[in-house]
Specification:
Arc Repressor Mutant, subunit A; about 40% helix; about 10% strand; 15 helices; nine-stranded mixed beta sheet; Rossmann fold; 3 domains
Length: about 425
Protein backbone atom coordinates (compact mmCIF):
# COMPACT_ATOMS: atom_id res chain seq x y z
CA UNK A 1 0.00 0.00 0.00
CA UNK A 2 1.27 3.46 -0.89
CA UNK A 3 -0.18 6.49 0.85
CA UNK A 4 0.26 10.07 -0.25
CA UNK A 5 1.63 12.57 2.25
CA UNK A 6 -1.88 13.98 2.72
CA UNK A 7 -3.26 10.48 3.42
CA UNK A 8 -0.50 9.75 5.93
CA UNK A 9 -1.35 12.93 7.81
CA UNK A 10 -5.04 11.94 7.75
CA UNK A 11 -4.09 8.57 9.28
CA UNK A 12 -2.09 10.29 11.98
CA UNK A 13 -4.87 12.76 12.62
CA UNK A 14 -7.50 10.01 12.96
CA UNK A 15 -5.50 7.83 15.38
CA UNK A 16 -4.49 10.88 17.44
CA UNK A 17 -8.13 11.91 17.86
CA UNK A 18 -9.70 11.38 21.26
CA UNK A 19 -11.35 8.00 21.89
CA UNK A 20 -10.10 6.52 18.62
CA UNK A 21 -8.25 3.26 19.26
CA UNK A 22 -6.97 0.68 16.73
CA UNK A 23 -10.29 -1.17 16.43
CA UNK A 24 -12.30 2.00 15.99
CA UNK A 25 -9.72 3.32 13.50
CA UNK A 26 -10.06 0.22 11.35
CA UNK A 27 -13.86 0.22 11.55
CA UNK A 28 -14.01 3.86 10.48
CA UNK A 29 -11.56 3.40 7.60
CA UNK A 30 -13.52 0.36 6.42
CA UNK A 31 -16.89 2.07 6.66
CA UNK A 32 -15.88 5.26 4.87
CA UNK A 33 -13.09 4.03 2.58
CA UNK A 34 -10.27 6.04 4.07
CA UNK A 35 -9.10 8.16 6.98
CA UNK A 36 -10.00 11.44 5.27
CA UNK A 37 -13.70 10.59 4.74
CA UNK A 38 -13.81 9.10 8.26
CA UNK A 39 -12.60 12.41 9.73
CA UNK A 40 -15.35 14.23 7.85
CA UNK A 41 -17.97 11.82 9.21
CA UNK A 42 -16.80 11.89 12.83
CA UNK A 43 -18.68 15.00 14.03
CA UNK A 44 -22.04 13.61 12.88
CA UNK A 45 -21.21 10.14 14.26
CA UNK A 46 -20.34 11.67 17.63
CA UNK A 47 -23.56 13.71 17.66
CA UNK A 48 -25.74 10.70 16.83
CA UNK A 49 -23.99 8.32 19.20
CA UNK A 50 -23.59 10.70 22.10
CA UNK A 51 -19.87 9.95 22.19
CA UNK A 52 -17.64 12.99 22.56
CA UNK A 53 -14.78 12.87 20.06
CA UNK A 54 -12.21 15.64 19.96
CA UNK A 55 -10.62 15.47 16.53
CA UNK A 56 -6.89 16.16 16.27
CA UNK A 57 -6.19 19.27 14.23
CA UNK A 58 -4.28 19.26 10.96
CA UNK A 59 -1.77 21.69 12.45
CA UNK A 60 -1.06 19.41 15.44
CA UNK A 61 -0.24 16.38 13.29
CA UNK A 62 1.85 18.49 10.91
CA UNK A 63 3.89 19.62 13.93
CA UNK A 64 4.21 16.01 15.08
CA UNK A 65 5.37 14.91 11.64
CA UNK A 66 7.94 17.73 11.45
CA UNK A 67 9.21 16.80 14.94
CA UNK A 68 9.62 13.16 13.83
CA UNK A 69 11.69 14.26 10.84
CA UNK A 70 13.94 16.43 13.04
CA UNK A 71 14.28 13.54 15.48
CA UNK A 72 15.32 11.17 12.69
CA UNK A 73 12.37 8.81 13.22
CA UNK A 74 10.00 7.42 10.61
CA UNK A 75 6.22 7.20 10.55
CA UNK A 76 5.11 3.79 9.25
CA UNK A 77 1.45 3.19 8.41
CA UNK A 78 -0.22 -0.22 8.49
CA UNK A 79 0.33 -2.00 5.20
CA UNK A 80 3.31 0.06 4.07
CA UNK A 81 6.58 -1.62 3.08
CA UNK A 82 8.43 -1.30 6.40
CA UNK A 83 5.43 -2.25 8.57
CA UNK A 84 6.32 -5.61 10.23
CA UNK A 85 4.34 -8.40 8.57
CA UNK A 86 3.96 -10.38 11.82
CA UNK A 87 2.51 -7.36 13.63
CA UNK A 88 0.13 -6.65 10.75
CA UNK A 89 -1.31 -10.16 11.20
CA UNK A 90 -2.70 -9.57 14.73
CA UNK A 91 -6.32 -8.60 15.37
CA UNK A 92 -5.73 -4.97 16.35
CA UNK A 93 -2.39 -3.82 14.94
CA UNK A 94 -1.33 -0.22 15.60
CA UNK A 95 -2.44 1.86 12.59
CA UNK A 96 0.78 3.86 12.79
CA UNK A 97 4.21 3.08 14.25
CA UNK A 98 7.03 5.48 15.09
CA UNK A 99 10.40 3.80 14.47
CA UNK A 100 14.03 4.83 14.80
CA UNK A 101 17.12 2.93 13.66
CA UNK A 102 17.72 0.19 11.09
CA UNK A 103 14.25 -0.82 9.91
CA UNK A 104 15.57 -3.83 8.00
CA UNK A 105 15.25 -5.82 11.25
CA UNK A 106 11.48 -5.80 10.74
CA UNK A 107 11.87 -8.12 7.75
CA UNK A 108 13.60 -10.88 9.73
CA UNK A 109 11.95 -13.56 11.94
CA UNK A 110 11.65 -12.36 15.50
CA UNK A 111 11.44 -13.97 18.93
CA UNK A 112 10.44 -12.05 22.05
CA UNK A 113 12.37 -12.60 25.27
CA UNK A 114 10.74 -11.16 28.39
CA UNK A 115 10.95 -11.73 32.11
CA UNK A 116 11.48 -10.33 35.55
CA UNK A 117 12.83 -6.84 36.13
CA UNK A 118 14.38 -8.18 39.36
CA UNK A 119 15.89 -11.25 37.76
CA UNK A 120 18.30 -13.67 39.40
CA UNK A 121 21.88 -14.04 38.19
CA UNK A 122 20.96 -17.44 36.74
CA UNK A 123 17.98 -15.95 34.91
CA UNK A 124 20.11 -13.16 33.44
CA UNK A 125 22.79 -15.60 32.30
CA UNK A 126 20.18 -17.87 30.68
CA UNK A 127 18.56 -14.90 28.90
CA UNK A 128 21.94 -13.83 27.54
CA UNK A 129 22.69 -17.35 26.31
CA UNK A 130 19.30 -17.86 24.68
CA UNK A 131 19.38 -14.46 22.97
CA UNK A 132 22.86 -15.05 21.62
CA UNK A 133 22.09 -18.53 20.33
CA UNK A 134 18.83 -17.45 18.69
CA UNK A 135 20.60 -14.49 17.08
CA UNK A 136 23.13 -16.95 15.64
CA UNK A 137 20.14 -18.66 13.97
CA UNK A 138 19.25 -15.28 12.37
CA UNK A 139 16.40 -14.45 14.74
CA UNK A 140 15.91 -10.85 15.84
CA UNK A 141 15.22 -10.49 19.57
CA UNK A 142 12.36 -8.19 20.62
CA UNK A 143 11.72 -6.98 24.14
CA UNK A 144 10.54 -3.98 26.14
CA UNK A 145 13.79 -2.25 27.22
CA UNK A 146 12.90 -2.90 30.88
CA UNK A 147 15.44 -3.67 33.57
CA UNK A 148 16.48 -7.27 34.13
CA UNK A 149 15.74 -9.90 31.48
CA UNK A 150 14.72 -7.40 28.78
CA UNK A 151 17.92 -5.38 28.99
CA UNK A 152 20.13 -8.47 29.09
CA UNK A 153 18.46 -9.87 25.96
CA UNK A 154 18.90 -6.55 24.13
CA UNK A 155 22.57 -6.23 25.12
CA UNK A 156 23.33 -9.79 24.01
CA UNK A 157 22.07 -9.03 20.48
CA UNK A 158 23.28 -5.50 19.81
CA UNK A 159 25.55 -6.67 16.99
CA UNK A 160 22.96 -8.88 15.30
CA UNK A 161 20.04 -6.48 15.68
CA UNK A 162 17.36 -6.18 18.34
CA UNK A 163 13.99 -4.41 18.60
CA UNK A 164 13.01 -2.44 21.71
CA UNK A 165 9.33 -1.52 22.05
CA UNK A 166 8.62 1.52 24.22
CA UNK A 167 5.50 2.30 26.22
CA UNK A 168 6.06 6.05 25.77
CA UNK A 169 7.45 8.28 23.06
CA UNK A 170 10.85 7.53 21.54
CA UNK A 171 12.24 10.61 23.27
CA UNK A 172 11.00 9.40 26.65
CA UNK A 173 13.26 6.42 27.37
CA UNK A 174 12.10 4.42 30.38
CA UNK A 175 13.91 3.60 32.55
CA UNK A 176 16.20 6.61 32.14
CA UNK A 177 19.40 4.65 32.77
CA UNK A 178 18.75 2.77 29.51
CA UNK A 179 19.19 5.85 27.30
CA UNK A 180 22.70 4.68 26.38
CA UNK A 181 21.40 1.19 25.60
CA UNK A 182 18.69 2.72 23.40
CA UNK A 183 21.31 4.57 21.37
CA UNK A 184 23.29 1.37 20.89
CA UNK A 185 20.18 -0.51 19.79
CA UNK A 186 19.56 2.07 17.04
CA UNK A 187 22.92 1.34 15.41
CA UNK A 188 21.87 -2.11 14.08
CA UNK A 189 18.36 -2.53 15.43
CA UNK A 190 15.33 -0.35 16.05
CA UNK A 191 13.24 1.41 18.67
CA UNK A 192 9.51 1.39 18.05
CA UNK A 193 6.41 2.88 19.67
CA UNK A 194 2.84 3.73 18.74
CA UNK A 195 2.97 6.79 21.00
CA UNK A 196 3.88 10.31 19.85
CA UNK A 197 7.08 12.08 20.82
CA UNK A 198 6.76 13.73 24.20
CA UNK A 199 4.46 11.02 25.62
CA UNK A 200 5.44 9.93 29.13
CA UNK A 201 4.45 6.31 29.72
CA UNK A 202 1.65 5.62 32.20
CA UNK A 203 1.03 2.32 33.92
CA UNK A 204 -1.81 1.51 31.50
CA UNK A 205 0.47 2.00 28.49
CA UNK A 206 2.62 -1.04 29.29
CA UNK A 207 0.01 -3.66 28.26
CA UNK A 208 -0.17 -1.82 24.91
CA UNK A 209 3.60 -2.11 24.65
CA UNK A 210 3.44 -5.81 25.56
CA UNK A 211 0.91 -6.51 22.80
CA UNK A 212 3.33 -5.06 20.24
CA UNK A 213 6.26 -7.08 21.61
CA UNK A 214 4.19 -10.27 21.21
CA UNK A 215 2.80 -9.20 17.83
CA UNK A 216 6.24 -8.58 16.34
CA UNK A 217 7.32 -12.10 17.26
CA UNK A 218 6.66 -15.61 16.06
CA UNK A 219 7.06 -16.79 19.64
CA UNK A 220 7.51 -15.35 23.13
CA UNK A 221 10.00 -16.82 25.61
CA UNK A 222 9.34 -16.04 29.28
CA UNK A 223 12.33 -16.31 31.65
CA UNK A 224 11.42 -15.77 35.32
CA UNK A 225 8.03 -14.19 35.96
CA UNK A 226 6.09 -13.79 39.16
CA UNK A 227 2.38 -14.58 39.13
CA UNK A 228 1.45 -10.93 38.65
CA UNK A 229 4.24 -10.11 36.23
CA UNK A 230 3.62 -8.07 33.11
CA UNK A 231 5.56 -10.77 31.24
CA UNK A 232 2.46 -12.93 31.63
CA UNK A 233 0.46 -10.20 29.88
CA UNK A 234 2.87 -10.50 26.95
CA UNK A 235 2.40 -14.28 27.01
CA UNK A 236 -1.38 -13.85 27.08
CA UNK A 237 -1.26 -11.58 24.03
CA UNK A 238 0.99 -14.08 22.24
CA UNK A 239 -1.54 -16.84 22.91
CA UNK A 240 -4.45 -14.69 21.70
CA UNK A 241 -2.47 -13.82 18.57
CA UNK A 242 -1.90 -17.51 17.78
CA UNK A 243 1.84 -17.37 18.47
CA UNK A 244 4.04 -19.84 20.35
CA UNK A 245 4.66 -19.31 24.07
CA UNK A 246 7.79 -20.78 25.69
CA UNK A 247 8.50 -20.85 29.41
CA UNK A 248 11.62 -21.70 31.38
CA UNK A 249 10.87 -23.87 34.43
CA UNK A 250 12.11 -22.77 37.82
CA UNK A 251 12.28 -23.77 41.44
CA UNK A 252 8.88 -23.93 43.19
CA UNK A 253 10.58 -22.14 46.08
CA UNK A 254 11.40 -19.05 43.96
CA UNK A 255 8.50 -16.57 43.54
CA UNK A 256 10.14 -15.40 40.31
CA UNK A 257 9.42 -18.83 38.79
CA UNK A 258 5.75 -19.06 39.75
CA UNK A 259 4.48 -17.39 36.58
CA UNK A 260 6.60 -19.55 34.27
CA UNK A 261 5.58 -22.74 36.08
CA UNK A 262 1.94 -21.70 35.74
CA UNK A 263 2.43 -21.14 32.00
CA UNK A 264 3.83 -24.65 31.66
CA UNK A 265 0.81 -26.10 33.46
CA UNK A 266 -1.41 -24.17 31.02
CA UNK A 267 0.30 -25.69 27.98
CA UNK A 268 3.25 -23.44 27.17
CA UNK A 269 6.22 -25.16 25.51
CA UNK A 270 8.95 -26.06 27.99
CA UNK A 271 12.24 -24.42 27.06
CA UNK A 272 15.67 -25.39 28.41
CA UNK A 273 17.74 -24.71 25.30
CA UNK A 274 17.53 -22.64 22.14
CA UNK A 275 16.77 -25.69 19.98
CA UNK A 276 13.40 -25.96 21.76
CA UNK A 277 12.46 -22.60 20.25
CA UNK A 278 14.00 -23.22 16.83
CA UNK A 279 12.27 -26.59 16.39
CA UNK A 280 8.86 -25.30 17.47
CA UNK A 281 9.05 -22.31 15.11
CA UNK A 282 10.35 -24.31 12.11
CA UNK A 283 6.85 -24.99 10.66
CA UNK A 284 5.97 -21.29 10.86
CA UNK A 285 9.23 -20.37 9.15
CA UNK A 286 8.45 -22.86 6.38
CA UNK A 287 4.79 -22.00 5.89
CA UNK A 288 4.56 -18.43 7.15
CA UNK A 289 1.89 -16.83 9.31
CA UNK A 290 -1.73 -16.79 8.07
CA UNK A 291 -2.28 -13.88 5.71
CA UNK A 292 -3.99 -10.98 7.49
CA UNK A 293 -7.21 -9.64 6.04
CA UNK A 294 -7.14 -6.45 4.02
CA UNK A 295 -7.43 -3.23 5.99
CA UNK A 296 -10.44 -2.49 3.79
CA UNK A 297 -12.14 -5.81 4.55
CA UNK A 298 -15.88 -5.54 5.14
CA UNK A 299 -15.65 -8.57 7.45
CA UNK A 300 -13.73 -6.46 9.97
CA UNK A 301 -16.54 -3.95 10.45
CA UNK A 302 -17.58 -3.53 14.08
CA UNK A 303 -20.43 -1.76 15.80
CA UNK A 304 -19.12 1.70 16.66
CA UNK A 305 -21.24 1.69 19.81
CA UNK A 306 -19.13 -1.13 21.29
CA UNK A 307 -16.99 -0.19 24.27
CA UNK A 308 -13.41 0.54 23.25
CA UNK A 309 -10.42 -1.31 24.63
CA UNK A 310 -9.33 0.96 27.45
CA UNK A 311 -5.68 -0.12 27.27
CA UNK A 312 -5.58 0.58 23.54
CA UNK A 313 -7.18 4.01 23.42
CA UNK A 314 -4.43 6.56 23.21
CA UNK A 315 -6.06 9.74 24.40
CA UNK A 316 -8.57 8.52 26.97
CA UNK A 317 -6.62 10.75 29.36
CA UNK A 318 -5.31 14.28 28.66
CA UNK A 319 -2.16 14.22 26.55
CA UNK A 320 1.01 15.46 28.24
CA UNK A 321 2.19 18.94 27.39
CA UNK A 322 5.17 18.92 25.04
CA UNK A 323 7.57 21.76 25.65
CA UNK A 324 7.01 24.61 23.22
CA UNK A 325 10.75 24.73 22.50
CA UNK A 326 10.46 21.31 20.90
CA UNK A 327 8.14 22.75 18.27
CA UNK A 328 10.53 25.53 17.17
CA UNK A 329 12.75 24.96 14.16
CA UNK A 330 15.61 26.78 15.86
CA UNK A 331 15.49 24.36 18.80
CA UNK A 332 14.88 20.93 17.25
CA UNK A 333 14.23 17.71 19.11
CA UNK A 334 17.66 16.35 20.09
CA UNK A 335 18.65 13.11 18.34
CA UNK A 336 18.63 9.85 20.26
CA UNK A 337 21.48 8.43 18.17
CA UNK A 338 25.04 8.48 19.59
CA UNK A 339 25.98 11.95 20.78
CA UNK A 340 29.32 13.73 21.14
CA UNK A 341 31.49 12.94 24.15
CA UNK A 342 30.77 16.42 25.55
CA UNK A 343 27.24 15.34 26.46
CA UNK A 344 26.91 14.61 30.18
CA UNK A 345 27.01 10.88 30.95
CA UNK A 346 23.76 9.25 32.04
CA UNK A 347 23.05 8.95 35.74
CA UNK A 348 24.37 5.79 37.38
CA UNK A 349 21.74 3.17 38.12
CA UNK A 350 22.90 2.78 41.74
CA UNK A 351 22.50 6.53 42.38
CA UNK A 352 18.96 6.39 41.05
CA UNK A 353 18.22 3.32 43.19
CA UNK A 354 19.31 5.23 46.30
CA UNK A 355 16.98 8.10 45.41
CA UNK A 356 14.15 5.67 44.71
CA UNK A 357 14.57 4.06 48.14
CA UNK A 358 14.41 7.49 49.77
CA UNK A 359 11.17 8.35 47.93
CA UNK A 360 9.58 5.01 48.84
CA UNK A 361 10.43 5.63 52.48
CA UNK A 362 8.54 8.95 52.38
CA UNK A 363 5.36 7.28 51.16
CA UNK A 364 2.71 5.84 53.42
CA UNK A 365 -1.01 5.02 53.44
CA UNK A 366 -1.96 8.73 53.57
CA UNK A 367 -1.96 10.44 50.14
CA UNK A 368 0.64 13.14 49.46
CA UNK A 369 1.21 15.32 46.40
CA UNK A 370 4.02 14.77 43.95
CA UNK A 371 5.18 18.34 44.61
CA UNK A 372 5.46 17.60 48.34
CA UNK A 373 7.54 14.52 47.62
CA UNK A 374 9.86 16.56 45.41
CA UNK A 375 10.23 19.27 48.07
CA UNK A 376 10.79 16.89 50.98
CA UNK A 377 13.30 14.74 49.12
CA UNK A 378 15.06 17.54 47.21
CA UNK A 379 14.46 15.58 44.00
CA UNK A 380 13.23 16.82 40.62
CA UNK A 381 9.59 16.21 39.73
CA UNK A 382 10.75 14.35 36.59
CA UNK A 383 12.72 11.87 38.73
CA UNK A 384 9.83 11.58 41.19
CA UNK A 385 7.44 10.62 38.39
CA UNK A 386 9.83 7.97 37.11
CA UNK A 387 10.21 6.47 40.58
CA UNK A 388 6.45 6.50 41.14
CA UNK A 389 5.94 4.68 37.85
CA UNK A 390 8.38 1.99 39.04
CA UNK A 391 6.37 1.61 42.25
CA UNK A 392 3.11 1.50 40.29
CA UNK A 393 4.43 -1.28 38.05
CA UNK A 394 5.39 -3.23 41.19
CA UNK A 395 1.82 -2.84 42.51
CA UNK A 396 3.07 -0.75 45.45
CA UNK A 397 1.55 2.62 44.51
CA UNK A 398 -2.01 3.90 44.51
CA UNK A 399 -2.93 7.07 42.61
CA UNK A 400 -5.66 9.46 43.74
CA UNK A 401 -7.24 12.55 42.26
CA UNK A 402 -5.49 15.89 42.55
CA UNK A 403 -2.02 14.49 41.79
CA UNK A 404 -2.00 12.58 45.09
CA UNK A 405 -0.25 9.25 45.64
CA UNK A 406 0.09 6.75 48.48
CA UNK A 407 1.41 3.27 49.12
CA UNK A 408 -1.06 0.64 47.95
CA UNK A 409 -2.94 -1.14 50.69
CA UNK A 410 -2.62 -4.38 48.74
CA UNK A 411 -0.63 -5.51 45.70
CA UNK A 412 -2.12 -4.72 42.31
CA UNK A 413 -1.32 -6.56 39.11
CA UNK A 414 2.00 -5.45 37.71
CA UNK A 415 2.10 -4.35 34.05
CA UNK A 416 5.86 -4.45 33.88
Amino acid sequence: MRLSQAQRLDWLRLIRSENIGPRTFRALVNRYGGAGPALEALPELARRGGRPITIATRASVEREHEALQRFGAQLICLGEDHYPASLRAIDSPPPVLIALGDLSVFSRPTVAIVGSRNASAAGLAFAERMAGELAAQDFVIASGLARGIDARAHRATLRSGTIAVLAGGLDRIYPAEHEGLAREICERGALVSEMPLGWDARGRDFPRRNRIVAGLSLGTLVIEAARRSGSLITARFATEQGREVFAVPGSPLDPRAEGCNDLLRQGATLCTQSSDVVEALAPILRNGLPEPGSLFDVATLIDLTEPLWDELDLFAEPAPTIRASRERDEDPVPPLLPQPASVAPPRRAEDFATTAARIAALLGPSPVTVDDLARLSDTSVADIRMILLDLELDGRLERHGGNLVSLASFGAQSTR
